[in-house]
Design a protein that fits this description.
Strand order of the largest sheet: 3-2-1-4
Helix content: 25-40%
Order of helices and strands: HEHEEHE
Shape: globular
Number of strands: 4
CATH superfamily: Beta Polymerase, domain 2
Radius of gyration: 16 Å
Low-confidence stretches: none
Number of helices: 3
CATH architecture: 2-Layer Sandwich
Number of domains: 1
Distance between the termini: 42 Å
Length: 117
Protein backbone atom coordinates (compact mmCIF):
# COMPACT_ATOMS: atom_id res chain seq x y z
CA UNK A 1 0.00 0.00 0.00
CA UNK A 2 1.48 3.39 -0.97
CA UNK A 3 2.37 5.76 1.82
CA UNK A 4 2.48 9.49 1.33
CA UNK A 5 5.38 11.26 3.01
CA UNK A 6 5.12 14.91 4.01
CA UNK A 7 8.11 15.73 1.82
CA UNK A 8 6.73 14.00 -1.29
CA UNK A 9 4.94 15.64 -4.18
CA UNK A 10 1.23 15.04 -4.59
CA UNK A 11 -0.14 15.11 -8.10
CA UNK A 12 -3.60 16.53 -8.53
CA UNK A 13 -5.40 16.39 -11.87
CA UNK A 14 -8.15 18.87 -12.76
CA UNK A 15 -11.74 17.71 -12.54
CA UNK A 16 -13.59 17.05 -15.80
CA UNK A 17 -15.96 19.97 -15.15
CA UNK A 18 -13.04 22.36 -14.66
CA UNK A 19 -11.44 21.17 -17.89
CA UNK A 20 -14.70 21.59 -19.82
CA UNK A 21 -15.22 25.08 -18.42
CA UNK A 22 -11.70 26.11 -19.50
CA UNK A 23 -12.21 24.45 -22.89
CA UNK A 24 -15.47 26.33 -23.54
CA UNK A 25 -13.76 29.60 -22.66
CA UNK A 26 -10.86 28.79 -24.99
CA UNK A 27 -13.21 27.89 -27.85
CA UNK A 28 -15.11 31.15 -27.52
CA UNK A 29 -11.86 33.11 -27.59
CA UNK A 30 -10.49 31.19 -30.60
CA UNK A 31 -13.70 31.60 -32.59
CA UNK A 32 -13.75 35.35 -31.96
CA UNK A 33 -10.07 35.71 -32.90
CA UNK A 34 -9.97 33.64 -36.11
CA UNK A 35 -12.77 33.99 -38.64
CA UNK A 36 -11.66 30.79 -40.41
CA UNK A 37 -12.78 28.65 -37.47
CA UNK A 38 -16.16 27.07 -38.18
CA UNK A 39 -16.37 24.72 -35.22
CA UNK A 40 -14.37 23.06 -32.50
CA UNK A 41 -15.00 19.72 -30.85
CA UNK A 42 -13.38 17.20 -28.60
CA UNK A 43 -13.05 13.46 -28.87
CA UNK A 44 -11.18 10.69 -27.07
CA UNK A 45 -11.56 9.96 -23.37
CA UNK A 46 -13.19 13.32 -22.62
CA UNK A 47 -15.98 12.72 -25.17
CA UNK A 48 -16.35 9.05 -24.28
CA UNK A 49 -16.83 9.79 -20.57
CA UNK A 50 -13.61 7.98 -19.64
CA UNK A 51 -11.80 11.08 -18.37
CA UNK A 52 -9.34 10.36 -15.59
CA UNK A 53 -5.98 11.14 -14.06
CA UNK A 54 -3.45 11.76 -16.82
CA UNK A 55 -6.03 12.30 -19.57
CA UNK A 56 -5.45 14.92 -22.21
CA UNK A 57 -7.87 16.78 -24.49
CA UNK A 58 -8.14 15.59 -28.07
CA UNK A 59 -9.33 18.69 -29.94
CA UNK A 60 -10.57 19.02 -33.50
CA UNK A 61 -10.70 22.44 -35.15
CA UNK A 62 -12.55 22.81 -38.45
CA UNK A 63 -11.57 25.73 -40.68
CA UNK A 64 -13.35 27.04 -43.74
CA UNK A 65 -9.98 27.36 -45.51
CA UNK A 66 -6.29 26.91 -44.74
CA UNK A 67 -3.11 27.96 -46.52
CA UNK A 68 -0.83 26.06 -44.13
CA UNK A 69 0.09 22.42 -44.62
CA UNK A 70 -1.91 20.04 -42.41
CA UNK A 71 0.97 19.42 -40.00
CA UNK A 72 1.61 23.15 -39.57
CA UNK A 73 -1.97 24.29 -38.82
CA UNK A 74 -1.99 23.50 -35.11
CA UNK A 75 0.74 26.12 -34.60
CA UNK A 76 -1.90 28.80 -35.30
CA UNK A 77 -3.70 27.93 -32.06
CA UNK A 78 -2.20 28.42 -28.61
CA UNK A 79 -3.76 25.90 -26.25
CA UNK A 80 -1.15 26.25 -23.51
CA UNK A 81 -3.57 27.97 -21.14
CA UNK A 82 -5.80 24.87 -21.00
CA UNK A 83 -5.30 22.97 -17.72
CA UNK A 84 -4.15 19.69 -19.30
CA UNK A 85 -2.11 18.67 -22.36
CA UNK A 86 -3.84 18.96 -25.74
CA UNK A 87 -3.64 16.96 -28.96
CA UNK A 88 -4.83 19.43 -31.59
CA UNK A 89 -5.95 18.34 -35.06
CA UNK A 90 -6.91 21.05 -37.55
CA UNK A 91 -8.83 20.23 -40.74
CA UNK A 92 -10.57 22.22 -43.43
CA UNK A 93 -14.29 21.62 -43.76
CA UNK A 94 -13.72 19.78 -47.05
CA UNK A 95 -11.08 17.50 -45.48
CA UNK A 96 -13.33 16.72 -42.53
CA UNK A 97 -16.32 15.94 -44.77
CA UNK A 98 -14.19 13.62 -46.91
CA UNK A 99 -12.84 11.82 -43.84
CA UNK A 100 -16.37 11.44 -42.49
CA UNK A 101 -17.63 10.04 -45.81
CA UNK A 102 -14.85 7.48 -45.73
CA UNK A 103 -15.52 6.63 -42.07
CA UNK A 104 -12.02 7.73 -41.03
CA UNK A 105 -12.83 10.49 -38.53
CA UNK A 106 -12.60 9.95 -34.77
CA UNK A 107 -15.77 8.99 -32.92
CA UNK A 108 -17.50 10.28 -30.91
CA UNK A 109 -16.96 14.02 -31.36
CA UNK A 110 -18.67 16.52 -29.07
CA UNK A 111 -18.99 19.85 -30.89
CA UNK A 112 -18.93 23.06 -28.89
CA UNK A 113 -21.24 25.77 -30.22
CA UNK A 114 -19.92 29.01 -31.65
CA UNK A 115 -20.42 30.97 -28.44
CA UNK A 116 -18.12 28.57 -26.60
CA UNK A 117 -20.92 27.35 -24.34
Amino acid sequence: MPVRLLSSSVLKWPRRDDVLRALHHWVGRVMRADERVLRVGYTGSLAAGEWGFGSDIDLIVILNTAQEAWLERARCFDATDLPVPVDLLVYTEAEWEEMSRQGRGPRPVVWIDETGS
